[in-house]
Specification:
This protein is of the alpha+beta class and 373 residues long. It is built from 13 helices and nine strands. 46% of the residues lie in helices and 15% in strands. Helix 1 (2-10) runs antiparallel to helix 4 (56-74) and helix 8 (141-148) packs across helix 9.
Length: 373
């Protein structure tokens, strides 16, 4: 988790080889930032992060923010949406303080930008320490409904505490799979309760989903209570799907992401089953997976191929199949970029349901990359 926090603070925008300040501009900035030379801040290409590197007050505020982020993530069993929310905040922080992309901060503007960054960073650290912020920051229809209903909010808090207690008993690898499984529970819940894609729908129009959410929270809480403190009775089992459908594709994708530690870089946002061919013992399901970039990674790398199933052309936003073995692109995906892939998933019929036969996301049949900072 510490890796994720440091990545969010230091690598929001990757180094851009085309960006460089003039010698005069760099000297002027160094005069304004006492730690600039000592900390080799000229090597940092993001203008905002240069200021955090070169100023003691900003560095101290960043350290407090890092601690607040860690404390928030520690109380959440599904941490990746919170990481995405924080990345979006950092992008908005830069824009709000007058930092536009990779454009260097003018020396005359440094004092004003520093004051703005210090103010909003200090305020953010204080806000994150409040557990109520987890509800206030909910950007899904289910999250908004739960936070608007005290009984649902209490039920979710109880479930989260029990889940974290169980996962705390697992080793690091097993815990990674457990966190991925919890994220899959959440996506499955939203599908079952017909809440996918309804983030902007008024709450009063979603009230019919409250009973569904309550049933989910009750069922999962009872499942964890029945485990009597044994996390292996809840997590780490071979899960089968009742049908070769969206839930089955989601299980495949979540397992692949956990096996490759993809949660450090990418979050599965939504999963869809588009088409399927099923016989008595086998099935082929065409699935679409939407992902969000949480930390920068190059478009042709192990992270790209293991976690998105392909290399990418950053200019066209389209996959570059087969490029991984031939080249390593210096282009990178920025935080909050949306990636969408399609591929076929194979399933085999077992006594207890349909089991996924896939252990990687490649080959991808189609895909798109869009948005992002």
């Amino acid at each position: 988790m510490r890796l994720i926090v440091l990545t969010l603070l230091a690598l929001l925008v990757p180094a851009s080889p085309g960006f460089a300040q003039s010698g005069a501009s760099e000297r002027a900035i160094a005069d304004k930032l006492p730690l600039f030379a000592r900390n080799n801040c000229q090597q940092i290409r993001d203008p905002g992060n240069q200021l955090f590197c070169g100023d003691a007050q900003l560095a101290a505020a960043a350290e407090k923010l890092s601690a607040a982020i860690e404390a928030r993530l520690a109380r959440l069993p599904d941490r990746l949406p919170a990481i995405e929310e924080n990345a979006v905040w950092m992008r908005q922080r830069n824009l709000g303080c007058g930092i536009i992309g990779q454009t260097p901060v003018r020396p005359d503007d440094i004092d004003r930008v520093k004051a703005c960054l210090l103010k909003v960073t200090t305020e953010r650290a204080a806000i994150l320490r409040d557990p109520d912020f987890d509800c206030l920051a909910a950007n899904t229809a289910a999250g908004a409904l739960i936070c608007a209903d005290p009984s649902l909010a209490l039920a979710e808090a109880e479930l989260n505490a029990n889940v974290l207690s169980l996962i705390g008993k697992l080793d690091q690898t097993a815990a990674r799979f457990a966190f991925a499984e919890y994220g899959r529970w959440t996506r499955e819940r939203d599908r079952k309760c017909n809440l996918v894609g309804k983030e902007n729908v008024p709450l009063q129009e979603l009230e019919s989903a409250e009973d569904c959410l309550a049933d989910h929270l009750t069922r999962k809480t009872e499942q964890i209570a029945a485990a009597k403190g044994d996390p292996k009775k809840v997590f780490g089992r071979q899960v089968t799907a009742r049908l070769p459908d969206t839930d089955a594709v989601d299980f495949c994708a979540a397992r692949i992401h956990a096996a490759n530690s993809c949660g450090n870089f990418v979050r599965i946002n939504r999963v869809y089953a588009i088409d399927s061919q099923v016989n008595d013992q086998e099935a082929q399901v065409t699935g679409e997976i939407e992902m969000v970039v949480l930390a920068p990674f190059t478009t042709c790398s192990k992270v790209a191929t293991n976690c998105t199933g392909t290399c990418w052309d950053v200019n066209s936003g389209l996959p570059k199949p087969g490029a991984a073995s031939k080249e390593r692109s210096g282009d990178a995906f920025n935080v909050t970029r949306r990636l969408r892939i399609q591929r076929n998933f194979a399933f085999v019929k077992a006594a207890d349901g349909w089991r996924c036969r896939e252990d990687e996301l490649a080959p991808v049949s189609s895909g798109t990359a869009s948005g992002g900072s």
